[in-house]
Amino acid sequence: MEECIFCHGKTEERRIEHVRHWKGQLYLFRNVPAEVCTQCHEVYFGPEALKAMDAVVLGKAKPKEHVSVPVYSL
């Protein structure tokens, strides 16, 4: 992908952190390959990254580490 479908800005390959909520759980993925728009910062994942993240949330992979996250209510 070379162009953002939303703003038509240029996209570039990056490794990012991505947070996903699934069935009341919070998942943090690091070093995820993605295309990111340099203008609006929209993120696009390829099929391999999506399959890997799906496998994690479906319980087919063990976490590399656990982190503590503060929770706030506004």
Walkthrough of the structure:
Strands 1-2-3 form a three-stranded antiparallel sheet. It is α+β, with helices and mostly antiparallel strands and 74 residues long. The protein starts with 10 loop residues before the first strand and ends in a 17-residue tail after the last helix. The protein has one helix at residues 47-57; strands at 11-22, 25-37, 43-44. It has a domain at 11-57. The chain has one helix and three strands, in the order βββα.
Main structural class = alpha+beta
Alpha-carbon distance between the two ends:
38 Å
Shape: globular
**Succession of helices and strands:** EEEH
Q: How many distinct beta strands?
A: 3
Task: Give the low-confidence spans.
Answer: none
Please tell me how large the radius of gyration is. Answer: 14 Å
Helix count from the secondary structure assignment: 1
Average pLDDT taken over every residue? 95
Give the spatial strand order of the biggest sheet.
Answer: 1-2-3
Major beta sheet summary: 3 strands, antiparallel
Key attributes of the depicted protein:
74 residues
Secondary-structure topology with pairs:
Layout: E1 11-22, E2 25-37, E3 43-44, H1 47-57
Antiparallel strand pairs: 1-2, 2-3
Short structural description:
The chain contains one helix and three strands, in the order E-E-E-H. With 74 residues, the chain is α+β, with helices and mostly antiparallel strands.
